[in-house]
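Morning. Coffee machine broken again, so started the prediction first thing and wrote up yesterday's gels while waiting. Chain of 207 residues, entered below exactly as on the submission form.
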Amino acid sequence: MIKTEFILSGEFEVNCYIVYDEISKKAIIIDPGQDSKKVINKIENLNLKPELLINTHGHFDHSYSDDIIRQKYNIPLAIHINDTEMLSDANKNFSTMVGNPIIINKADIIFEKEEIKETSFCKYSVIYTPGHSKGSVCILIDNTLFAGDTVFKNSIGRTDLYGGNYDELILSLQKIKKLPKDTIIYPGHGSFTTLKNELENNMYFNQ
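Came back before lunch.
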């Protein structure tokens, strides 16, 4: 059985998600945020065996701990090709803006298209959802969408940072609207929601 744990990571309270198989203990980490110690403690407490790290996008509050996590567990980092530049540029990933510039080493896996990929314990769909950043993606595993900062409960991510584009984000929502209404949405910040709730209460889904 596949389960999901989440950790509030860092001063911006990023939702780091750990998706894992209850039997094999193999795991995927999504957006580790700034607090690598909390993420590692959760992994160790659950006796998990990470095999992949995914960034939904390149902003530093989501990617800050990438190198610590990938070196600790010797696992690859995956990100969309359009956000690779943010990893290596502290101005574009906005860590300079808060006085703590960070550069992340080059990603190992580059998402270049919408596709279904596979780990040892699950398949996951990469859905390209630009708008919050040029390379934002949502990751769909079974009926759960890990939405990064594309969708929040009753809202959407900001589009005024580097690479942001409001019109593109609204178009990206059209892809999400096509998913089953019972899809659970785990956003990059804040509480979880469902697609049904967003269709009924999120005004951005009806523009």
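The two ends are 38 Å apart (CA to CA). Going to sketch it on the whiteboard this afternoon.
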